[in-house]
Amino acid sequence: MIDCGRFRSAIDDRLHLMLETSARLLRLLSLLQTRPDWSGPELAGRLGVSTRTIRNDVERLRGLGYPVRATPGVAGGYRLGAGAALPPLLLDDEEAVAVAIGLRTAASGTVAGIEETSVRALAKLEQVLPSRLRRRVGALQAYMVPIPGSGPLVDGEVLALIAGACRDHQRLRFGYRDHAGAASVRNVEPHRLVCSSRRWYLLAWDTGRQDWRIFRVDRIEPRTPAGPRFGPRELPDEDVAAYVSRRVSSSSLWKHQVTVTLHASAETVAGQVTRPPGRLEPVDGDTCLLHTGADNLHMLAVLLGMLDVDFSVTDPPELLEHLRALAGRYERAAR
User: Mean pLDDT, to the nearest integer, of 94-110?
Assistant: First the structure.
């Protein structure tokens, strides 16, 4: 005769164990997605189980189609490899919202060819979002108004190619056009991609010039095949973004380069903006020089006006003429 009470208790215990195991598998999968390599003891400590349980759970994930790779030995561990199909990503609330915002921004960004793809991915993400997150993302979409920019579009495939070369430490050979349209062929060791003021830049070691160079990505035309691998170099600055920002503001990447005298200390000017639009050179306690550049004179005039300090321009004459014309427009508007 079957004891119904004991039978029901056994079923409940079995269900509880299955739910506990499933929840642990999801947590294990989430951990494997957060970073490339994990040791068995690290995963066991995070999940509060034994390393043997971790081995068993890894086998269960493999049975479900997740390509979890194991490396034996003292320095061994586990890594979630790339499979034939994309496994579902486990995102917490903040990560899901961040991905949605990123896709929304990408749909109207400066990388050509990914607008439609971003919209499709965003639509798929919204279908599986919980209602509480769907409301947050919906509010962001309804009230976020992107400002149309004048930055040039870059080819998404070119951007991915350069990023892959940076990752794999592989030399690049490409045709390049400067601001005047002069063409040249460059052989470089690519290190970093930087996006600044709606423009993409490549920081690379130019093997022909034997120096660090910065290239506008929208002016790069990659040539195949790619070059051999190289050993990573020490970067010219720990803050790559600040380094590129300083260099591009006063380099030949711009059609117009100017040096402006600002009637304020370098500290005062730097405190007005998040990142100075050029290289500041202190002169004394009340004066500094701003070395900067732009593709057109109007951009330079607007940039100087945003600094909210008195300034003097002696060169080039075309910028002086543009400032006089702009001052006349403002004076007529003030009347």
Answer: 76
Report d(CA 204, CA 199) in Å as an integer. Answer: 16
- What is the phi-psi region of residue 169: left when phi exceeds 0, alpha when psi lies from -120 to 50, beta otherwise? left
Please tell me the distance from the alpha carbon of residue 177 to that of residue 183, in angstroms, as a whole number. 5
Q: What is the largest CA-CA distance in the chain?
A: 105
d(CA 106, CA 111): 7
Q: Where are the alpha helices (DSSP H) in 111-239?
A: 115-128, 131-143, 156-168
What is the rounded distance in angstroms from the CA atom of residue 330 to the CA atom of residue 321? 14
CA distance 28 to 40: 11
Which pTM was predicted? 0.55
Cα 110 from chain centre: 12
- In terms of pLDDT, which residue wins out, 38 or 83? 38
Describe the chain by its helix, strand, coil percentages, rounded to 5. 45, 25, 30
The Cβ of residue 126 has, within 10 Å, a number of other Cβ atoms equal to 16
Residue 254 tokens read as 């711009």
